[in-house]
């Protein structure tokens, strides 16, 4: 369908244009892009240690150098500016800011991020700053049991957030505490496939991690509200949770209930405490004592602790009731859920992309944001991550590496689904593409490229893929979706 629209005097050759107030954002995370692992006082994080253990990551690859953004940040911000991005989402490395167990602030770390923020300001790009994107200082793991120890984690995050808010708060309006705590807790403590790589107590540690994260998030939000009271500033705080839409396998009541439980174990377990002051119904009971109800003091800290809803979402799956699982064996089993990407009719939920978990299901994100709006009425939703590595992309050579029409098609699908919801009144304000650059994809190392910008990892040269130029026009409102 070809439409000819006029918008601020520019002609739109195709598709639907986003409202002028809608913001586009380029997303990244410290360990995946910075490199400079041993510079300016930074101490090791759990990811430095995990990625150096043989066999834990593809090809034994690590983030020691990543894409050297620590040194190239000005050039990188210039690239975002060329594409007209409104917002740069990035995370601070906690072990640059509090590198030692005495929690003494490393001024070099603060100074580095001030330079990044000053340069963003100069280029007119708003920062969206994540405090924690999985790279916990190693000393926290060794001394206190890392993300499992609510007492120690809360103390650490309070000191860390204070240092960040005091040192950088004047330059940042939008903050997130944790990125994808579901992933940290499940991959880190149930499956052991990501740092710190534990699968020793999958029946209890994922619950301990969720609890410690919630308490720490609440403590940070309290400090935030004290430092930046409403009315004197418009600064916002959020927690960037992730969720795959959970589509009922059949339209039986059993599977519809399973779909709700799927969302309970993924998303509601974090957001119900934050919006309703309690865990989802049934979770405490099914955990066989591993999940304790929140205490009144914890509810006080956690309930009402976000200003906006930040969501990472990439894919969807079918979910059905599985009564045969045994309660008390693992977090996953306690949901009594079966999951599949194949419908009851034998068809795939969508086309799979390069990562085996990432099916292209644009309608899933539409259902998910409507569900979030209905359940929590959050006022504002930020899609803080979405994207893919295109099927076959790791093997492309020569000029092929920039010709990522599959990525444009994927984003068109998801952004159309989001725009449909926006037009219905679902308050999505912002969309972040994951990622601005090809980068260190955690346990997959450098084997999966999620960037809209190609990086030659030998020379650290950057080249816009076709999708980056497409985003430039989309944000320009010279192209629609
Ligand atoms: C949790 O951290 C506290 C310090 O905040 C420490 O006293 C305690 O021993 C730690 N617990 C475990 C199980 O490591
Ligand atoms: C907050 O935003 C509102 C609405 O945009 C504006 O009227 C107000 O002046 C802002 N307050 C501060 C302290 O920036
Ligand atoms: C579905 O959930 C509702 C509400 O919890 C419950 O009343 C109903 O019995 C459940 N149905 C089935 C088939 O499990
Ligand atoms: C949580 O906060 C909401 C909104 O302020 C309130 O309605 C609810 O009662 C609180 N929940 C608890 C358990 O305190
Ligand atoms: C549960 O076990 C029963 C009996 O073996 C079997 O018929 C049923 O298909 C199983 N359900 C699922 C979801 O696997
Ligand atoms: C399966 O096929 C039936 C009949 O064509 C259709 O109504 C239903 O939507 C399909 N379900 C899925 C999950 O594709
Ligand atoms: C899946 O891929 C096929 C082949 O490239 C394409 O024809 C089809 O439209 C795709 N389906 C979806 C839902 O994207
Ligand atoms: C990366 O740069 C090196 C040095 O210029 C070059 O030899 C190599 O072919 C480049 N890699 C790709 C994939 O372009
Ligand atoms: C933005 O729009 C202008 C005017 O059409 C165009 O010249 C420019 O190349 C566009 N920028 C990008 C990044 O697409």
Automatic annotation (TrEMBL):
Which protein are we looking at? Answer: Beta-glucosidase
Annotated GO biological processes are: carbohydrate metabolic process
Q: Which residues form the signal peptide?
A: 1-15
For this chain, the family text in UniProt reads: Belongs to the glycosyl hydrolase 1 family.
Q: Which UniProt keywords apply?
A: Signal
Which InterPro entries does the entry link to? GH, Glyco_hydro_1
| UniProt source species | Coptotermes formosanus
Q: Which PANTHER family match?
A: BETA-GLUCOSIDASE 42, GLYCOSYL HYDROLASE
Q: Write down the SUPFAM superfamilies for this protein, in alphabetical order.
A: (Trans)glycosidases
């Amino acid at each position: 369908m070809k439409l000819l629209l006029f918008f601020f005097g520019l002609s739109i050759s195709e598709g639907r244009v986003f409202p002028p107030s809608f913001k586009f954002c380029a997303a990244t995370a410290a360990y995946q892009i910075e490199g400079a692992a041993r510079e300016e006082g930074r101490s090791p994080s759990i990811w430095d240690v995990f990625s150096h253990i043989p066999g834990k990551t593809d090809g034994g690859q690590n983030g020691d150098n990543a894409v050297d953004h620590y040194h190239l940040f000005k050039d990188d911000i210039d690239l975002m500016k060329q594409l007209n991005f409104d917002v740069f989402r990035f995370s601070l490395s906690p072990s640059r800011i509090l590198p030692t167990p005495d929690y003494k602030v490393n001024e070099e770390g603060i100074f580095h991020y001030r330079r990044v923020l000053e340069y963003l300001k100069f280029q007119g790009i708003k920062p969206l700053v994540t405090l924690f994107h999985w790279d916990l200082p190693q000393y926290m793991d060794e001394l206190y049991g890392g993300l499992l120890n609510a007492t120690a984690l809360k103390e650490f995050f309070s000191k860390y957030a204070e240092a960040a808010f005091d040192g950088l708060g004047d330059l940042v309006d939008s903050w997130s505490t944790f990125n994808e705590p579901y992933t940290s807790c499940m991959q880190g403590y149930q499956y052991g496939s990501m740092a710190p790589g534990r699968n020793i107590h999958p029946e209890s540690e994922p619950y301990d991690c969720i609890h410690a994260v919630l308490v720490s998030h609440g403590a940070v939000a309290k400090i935030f509200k004290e430092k930046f009271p409403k009315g004197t500033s418009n600064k916002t705080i959020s927690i960037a949770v992730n969720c795959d839409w959970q589509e009922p396998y059949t339209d039986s009541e059993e599977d519809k209930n399973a779909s709700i439980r799927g969302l309970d174990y993924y998303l509601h377990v974090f957001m119900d405490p934050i919006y309703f002051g309690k865990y989802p119904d049934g979770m405490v009971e099914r955990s066989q004592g591993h999940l304790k109800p929140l205490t009144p003091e914890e509810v006080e800290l956690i309930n009402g602790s976000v200003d906006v809803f930040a969501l990472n979402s990439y894919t969807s799956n079918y979910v059905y009731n599985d009564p045969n699982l045994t309660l008390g064996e693992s977090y996953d089993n306690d949901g009594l859920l079966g999951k599949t990407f194949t419908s009851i009719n034998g068809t795939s939920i969508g086309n799979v992309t390069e990562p085996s978990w990432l099916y292209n299901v644009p309608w899933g994100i539409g259902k998910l944001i409507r569900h979030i709006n209905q359940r929590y009425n959050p006022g504002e939703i930020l899609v803080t991550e979405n994207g893919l590595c295109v099927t076959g992309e790791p093997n492309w050579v020569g000029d092929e590496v920039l010709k990522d029409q599959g990525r444009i098609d994927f984003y068109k699908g998801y952004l159309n689904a989001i725009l449909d919801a926006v037009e219905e009144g679902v308050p999505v304000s912002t969309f972040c593409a994951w990622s601005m650059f090809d980068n260190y994809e955690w346990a997959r190392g450098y084997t999966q490229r999620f960037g809209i910008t190609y990086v030659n990892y030998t020379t650290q040269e950057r080249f816009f893929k076709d999708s980056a130029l497409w985003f430039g026009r989309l944000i320009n409102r010279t192209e629609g979706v």
